[in-house]
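Re: the 304-residue chain
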Amino acid sequence: MTGLEQLAITGGIQLFSTIFGMRSASKADAASRAAQREYQKLLNKQAKIQNEYNEKSFNATVENYRAKIEYDFDTAVENWRYNTAIRAIREKTNAQKYLMSIRNANNKLTYNAIAEQQGLTRSQLAINDARTEHALQTQDVGIAQLVEQGRAVLGQAGRGMQKRTQSPAAEAGRNLAVLNASITGEINEAHLSMFDIRAGRYAADARVEAARMLRPERLPPMPAPTKPPEPIFVEPPEVLPGMAPIAQQQNIPQMFIQGIGSIAQNAVGIDWSSPNTDSLQPAPLQQSRAQAAGWANGQGNQLY
C-alpha cells in the first residue's frame, strides 16, 4: 500500500472520528443548553410563586389587622353606649334617692319639732296644774286657819286663848311651807324635763342631718372610643429568581483543529520513499473519539 493510500485511509478514519466527535459534542452542548433553559424556567416559576404568596400573605395581614381594628372599635362603641346608658340610669336613681332622702329628713325634722312641742306643752301644763293645785291647797290652808282662829276666839280669854289662836297659825305656816316646797320641786322637775326635751330634739335633728344623703354630682362624660393609628406596613421584598448553572460547552473548533492536526501528523509519519506498506506506520491519534466528545476528561455534558 502506497503512502498516499495509507494517508487516505488513516486521514479518512481520523476525519470521520473528528466529525463524529464534533456532532456528538454539538448534540451534548444543545442538550446542556436546553437543560439550563428548563432549569431557569423552573427557578423563575418558583420565584413567581413565592412573590405571589408573599403578596397575598402581606395583603391578608393588612386586611386582618384592619378587620380586627374595626371589630374592636365597634365593640368599644357598643360598650361605651351601654355604659353611658347605665350611668345615666344610675345618676337618675341617685337623684331620686337624694330627693327621697331630703323628704325623709324634712319629715323627721318636722316630727322632732312636733314631739318637742308636745313635750314642752305637757311640761308647761304640768307646771300650770301644779300652780293651780298649790293655789287651791294654799286657799284651803288659809280657810282652815281662819276656822281654827275663829274657834279659838270663841273660847276662853286670856293666855289660853292666845295659845289656841297661835297654834292654827303655826300649823297653817307649816302646811304652806310644805306646799311651797312641793310646787317648787314640781316646777323644777318640769323645767328639767323641758331641757331634756330640747336636748333630745337637738340630738335627733343631728342624727337626721348625719343620715341625710349628700347631693350627688354629675359625673364627667365618658370618653368616646377612638381607633388607634394604623401602623406602617412594609411590603416584603421581591424574590429574584436564581441563576441556573451555566451549561458546559465543548470547544468544537478546537476539536476540528486537533483532528486536522492528527491527520497532518499521520502524513508526516509515512515513509514516502519506500513502496513497502509495512514500513508505513500511522502517527498515534492524539485523542479518542470519546475524549473528543468530552466524556473521558469530564468536559462533556454532565447530563449524559
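Residues 3-224+255-292 form one domain.
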